[in-house]
Design goal:
By secondary structure, the chain is α/β, with parallel strands linked by helices. It has 13 helices and 22 strands. The structure holds nicotinamide-adenine-dinucleotide.
């Protein structure tokens, strides 16, 4: 690449995660000349390379390990699994490679120019891209910033020690530590706990708040907590890590708080205490784009920053930091640039923890309703009354529905149990369509399925349920 090689784009997209590649592809499909700039050699960002996708590939192995172990309860006994860690890692890597190669192929098919290198705005119409081969300038009519987020680091921890890892390090699956401490009982922490426990680590989780997955209603988290409590060495709530000291035999960790134990030594420590946006350090100020002190870039409902021809999407514009939010915002940005009257108008963004059991929720939670003084009526169908749940040996599940007490319109829902992440889609659709409980209860759900439990919860509100006896 020569120093002064320059390129012009109708639409420049900075960052090729789910937000960035979706924006680039949609803009190209709308007839724009698109340049997509990505610092890493593969497309797909955190989600495809070191996040959602590899973790789900590993969680599949964890699920098989759990199911085969529990299958003895139903009379089918398997020998304990033999784990070929190289092969487990290969499977995960192959899944990632298939998808990232697919993205590269789709970029070519659409005529999207992909440039590898680190991008920094030079002006509000140009971006410098630097790589090992030199620097190159891309000028643009419109830009979409999709630079994502990175794991929060706790100051003072020995971050250079290879035994202190973040989610990326955990997904590398370098080894199976005998004792693994997970700092942060949120989604990443508990998904990684699921994987490493299944592969043989003794797990300790330390969480600052008074429950695991603090964003979700406590009654839905309880079945998950009760199941993992039996598996893990320790779960310390209302506790934080104050200090980590590197020793030859491991990392010595010191705790503080209500549930704080004495200091202990772990072979590895995974820190999963949230992510922070990457808005600082991309030269946004050179383009006049406002970035707040945390690194978030404020946007309007059309994903426009304060600079009218520069847009931003995904983790860098705000929480929740989820791929499915980024992809929707991406389409809005690309369409607005192409002159469509699009806006981000989703009523809810569902959350899923792919733990065992899975935990999924959407819309208003009961905790939020209480905090905001919103009157709600709720009903929770216990999976212990579902033939299908009993058949798969998973009676701990729950399906909860949260409705307006006057209109019976759905305001929120949550599920805990196997496949909750799949089941929540129906609740999201119901909310988006303005459904009330009668709509849900009168929709014939196939029997016997876990999906029925959503209709049963609606019937509980309606007073028409016959699969349970509710006292009048
Ligand atoms: P999170 O916010 O879900 O959880 C972090 C947890 O750490 C919280 O429960 C918090 O109370 C706790 N915490 C914070 N500081 C602490 C401290 N000093 N000591 C102990 N606990 C502390 O964040 P995450 O799990 O790191 O995930 C980051 C982001 O990635 C989230 O936005 C999440 O939605 C997203 N993500 C989503 C999925 C998914 O959709 N399945 C999977 C992984 C990550």
């Amino acid at each position: 690449m020569s120093e002064n090689a320059s390129l012009h784009a109708d639409v420049l997209v900075l960052g090729a995660g789910p937000g960035g590649y979706t924006a680039a592809f949609r803009a190209a499909d709308l007839g724009k000349k698109v340049v997509l700039v990505e610092r890493y050699p593969t497309l797909g960002g955190v989600c495809l390379n070191v996040g959602c996708i590899p973790s789900k590939a590993l969680l599949h192995s964890a699920q098989i390990i759990h199911e085969t172990a529990e299958s003895a309860n139903t009379g089918v006994r398997f020998a304990p699994p033999e784990i070929d860690l190289d092969k487990v890692r290969d499977h995960k890597n192959k899944v990632v490679k298939t998808l990232t190669m697919g993205l590269a192929a789709m970029a070519r098919q659409r005529g999207v120019t992909v440039i590898q290198g680190l991008g920094r705005f030079v002006t509000d119409r140009s971006l410098a891209v630097s790589s090992a081969e030199g620097e190159r300038t891309v000028t643009f009519d419109h830009a979409i910033i999709a630079v994502g987020s990175q794991p929060v680091k706790i100051p003072g921890f020995p971050h250079d020690d290879p035994r202190l890892i973040d989610s990326t390090g955990a997904l590398e699956l370098a080894d199976i530590p005998a004792r693994l401490l997970i700092v942060g009982g949120g989604i990443i922490g508990l998904e990684m706990a699921t994987i490493y426990h299944a592969l043989g680590s003794a797990i300790t989780v330390v969480e600052l708040m008074d429950q695991l997955i603090p964003g979700c209603d406590a009654d839905l988290v309880k079945p998950l907590h009760q199941r993992v409590k039996k598996w893990y060495e320790n779960i310390h709530l209302k506790t934080r890590v104050t200090r980590i000291e590197a020793r030859a035999e491991g990392l010595e960790v010191f705790f503080e708080g209500e549930g704080a134990p004495a200091s202990a030594v772990f072979d590895k420590v995974l820190v999963a205490v949230g992510r922070r946006p990457n808005g600082l350090g991309i030269g946004a100020e050179q383009a006049g784009v406002q970035v707040d002190e945390r690194g978030f870039i404020p946007v309007d409902r059309q994903q426009r920053t304060n600079v009218p021809h520069i847009f931003a999407i995904g983790d860098v514009v705000g929480n929740p930091m989820l791929a499915h939010k980024a992809t929707h915002e991406a389409k809005v940005a690309a369409e607005v640039i192409a002159g469509h009257k699009s806006a981000f108008q989703a009523l809810t963004i569902p959350s899923v923890a792919y733990t065992d059991p899975e935990l999924a929720w959407m819309g208003l939670t009961e905790t939020q309703a209480r905090a905001q003084g919103i009157a709600v009526e709720t009903a929770t169908f216990p999976w212990a009354a579902s033939g299908r749940a009993l058949g798969i040996g998973r009676r701990e599940g729950l399906t909860k529905i949260i409705v307006d007490p006057e209109t019976h319109r759905i305001l929120g829902a949550g599920m805990v149990g196997p496949n909750a992440g799949e089941l929540i889609g129906e609740a999201v659709l119901a909310l988006e369509m303005g459904a009330d409980v009668a709509d849900i209860a009168l929709t014939i759900h196939p029997h016997p399925t876990l999906s029925e439990t959503f209709a049963f919860a609606a019937e509980m509100v309606e007073g028409t349920i016959t699969d349970l006896y509710l006292k009048k």
